[in-house]
Amino acid sequence: MTQHPAIRTPFAAACAALLALTLPAAASAEEYPSRPLRIIVGFPPGGATDLVARIIAPKLAESLKQQVIVDNRSGANGTIGADIAAKSTPDGYNLHLATLGALVISPSITKVPYDPLKDFATISMTVQLQNMFLAHPSLAARTIPELITLSKQKPGGLNYASSGLGSPGHLAGELFKTMAKVEMTHIPYKGGGPALSDLLGGQLPVFVAVISTGVPPVKAGRAVALAVTGAKRSSALPGVPTVAETPGMKGYEASNWYGMVAPAGTPPAIITRLQRELHAVNNAPDIREALLSRGIDPDSSTPGEFTAYIRAETAKWGKVISAANLKPN
Q1: Which of 9-18, 65-74, 137-146, 186-195 is predicted least confidently?
Q2: Which of 154, 128, 130 is nearest to 141 (CA)?
Q3: Domain encompassing residue 183
Q4: Are residues 213 and 201 in the same domain?
Q5: Together in a domain, 170 and 239
Q6: DSSP 8-class letter at 242
Q7: CATH code of residue 102
Q8: pLDDT tens figures, 72-81
Q9: Do 180 and 232 reside in the same domain of the chain?
Q10: Pairing with 63, which of 30, 173, 257, 285 sits 20 to 30 Å away (CA)?
């Protein structure tokens, strides 16, 4: 049966329009990636987030056969970098190594310019890691019990640093103060690198640092490891006790994590590809060794698992923040 031209023409035009939309998209997905990618890091060079990004970036570049650039956009406990990432083009070329602080803690303390779940497409959990209590060698404390005693002798006069307001180190310190019943003054920094520099320079007595930041100076004898904050000791520093081993501190635990996300609207096919590539990177023997030697545990997940984990962490830390009555400065 022959169609009337008046019927056939709109139908043909619609088909042509559909093909014009779908063919370039399909070709683009098949060619991805065709140019360099960037991983936005919300902290300056020298800190743990930057370290993890720079360990995995070369292996991811090798796998994708494209350059992967680490782009440091520091400030406000990682929320500046997260905001830049959320507002980036959702084309698979803009990634963000998100942190517990930027996706969970800061949004629970103050208003941030992005929605941690709505404005990001989760890709995969990347690493799990502990914090640790670091002290300058001049401090008259070599253990957590000694730190507690010293703190009680100087109510409010002993400072401790973290990588920022609302950072995992900040909350680890606040949880410590509550359980140990001591007063200490929090000094927020713009990242772990600057805080470590001041600790090593003698401007700070105590720094609650991500473990990967603390391992090198401890092994070099430039800082003292008082304790780690996880539920068990770290394989990188097996001789250092957990805070929970201290009498009266049973149940203390304050761990940390980083995970890869992209701007919301990034094509699902690209998210799937990136999740697969990141899983392979994390399981590469050289990457595992590089991370584990610094006390960082490689981890992977599906996008759905990572989203569910963020929701659970938000509920958990929201209770701690409420109990500590934390407010933005």
Answers
A1: 9-18
A2: 154
A3: 130-245
A4: yes
A5: yes
A6: B
A7: 3.40.190.150
A8: 999 888 999 9
A9: yes
A10: 257
Asked if residue 154 belongs to a domain, the reply is yes
**33 prior amide bond cis, ω within 30:** yes
Rg (CA), the chain: 23
Mapped onto helix, strand or coil, the DSSP state of residue 153 is: helix
Phi, psi of 284 (to 5 degrees): -70, 130
Show which of 210, 245, 280 is a domain's final residue: 245
pLDDT digits (tens, 9 = 90+) for 36-49: 999 999 998 988 89
112 and 135: one domain? no
The pLDDT value recorded for residue 278 is 98
Contact predicate 178/324, CB 8 Å: yes
Strands (E), 205-317: 206-210, 224-228, 255-263, 296-298
Residue 25 in this model has a pLDDT that exceeds 80? no
Q: What is the mean pLDDT of residues 263-280?
A: 98
* Cα–Cα distance for residue pair 298/282, rounded to 1 Å: 6
Amino acid (1-letter code) at residue 66: Q
pLDDT in tens, 279-311: 999 999 999 999 999 999 999 999 999 999 999
